[in-house]
Every structure is written in C-alpha cells, then in structure tokens.
Amino acid sequence: MSPIPVAKAGVKSGVSAGKPMNYTKFSSKLTGSLDQIGKMIEDNAKMIDSIQEVALELTGSIGALHTLTVKYAGIANQVLDVLLPLMQKIPLIPPKLTQFATDLEKMTQKIIDNQTATNKTITDVRSGLQTGDVSKLQSHAGELQNLTKTISAILPAK
Q1: 23 domain-assigned
Q2: Does 22 reside within a domain?
Q3: 45 CA to centre of own chain
Q4: % helix, strand, coil for the chain, step of 5
C-alpha cells in the first residue's frame, strides 16, 4: 500500500499549504490486515481442523471415562454403605482401615454427586465443538476449570 498524496490548502499548522502531504488511508491498512488474517487462516486450516477433531475425540474419551467412573463409584459406594457400619462396630479392624473406607466412601459420593453437572459440561462442550459454537465453548471454559479442580481435589495427594 503506497501512500496517497493529498493536497491540503489553507492549513496553517506548520505544514506548507502548497505542498501535497503523503499519508496512508486507514481503510488500506485494515484491508491489508484482513487479507493477512484470511491468509493465516487458510495456511493453518488443517491444523485448526485437526485441533477441533482431537478435541471432539477427547470429549468423547472423557465422557466414556466419566461414565465408567460413575458406574464403579456407585458400586463401591453401595458396598461401602454396607461395610462401613460393620467395620465401625468390630473392634478388631484397625482404625486406619476404617478411616480409609470412610474416606473412600466420601470420594465415591463426591463423584456421584457431581455426575449431573459433569455430564452437562461434557455434552455442551462436545456440542459446541461439533457446531463450531465459540460462545458455547467460552461459556464452559470456567466450568471445565472447576471440573478439573473438583477432580484434582478428589484425587489423593502424592
């Protein structure tokens, strides 16, 4: 984009009135920027599409893992609901084992309690990825961070 000369007559701001002034039009700058953005998108289309496909597969995998986790958390929770009262009444069972079972029951209950919210988030993110709905994805970014924090809090410390 080459500067376009424009004559300004009668300007008394230190610019001589008889000489043409060179400047670049804003519209030319913007058009050039948009052209560059379009070219960048074209150049990176395969990578952008691959990221979307990988994200879709990851949400599917996370959804399957979540379903599996909830299923086995439910089974473990039912077993612990029966065993814990018995363990607490039998004096031969070490207190550490009883505390471990109590902590495990709390963990499985948290997984079960968060099932609905986690399912909704996974489903909505997948839908946003499938439809290209950026606003839906952005609205769930915070929820995904909270989900990660919740899962991290459930995991035992190393």
Answers
A1: no
A2: no
A3: 21
A4: 75, 5, 20
Residue 49 to residues 46, 54, 87, 135, 140, Cα–Cα distance (Å): 5, 9, 54, 18, 20
Total structural domains within the chain:
1
pLDDT in tens, 15-61: 555 667 787 777 777 777 778 888 888 888 899 899 999 999 999 99
Whether pTM exceeds 0.85: no
Q: How many CB atoms lie within 10 A of CB 101?
A: 17
The answer to whether residue 10 is domain-embedded is: no
Q: Are 158 and 91 in contact (CB under 8 A)?
A: no
List the domain range (segments joined by +) for residue 104: 43-154
77-100 per-position pLDDT tens digit: 999 999 999 998 988 999 999 999
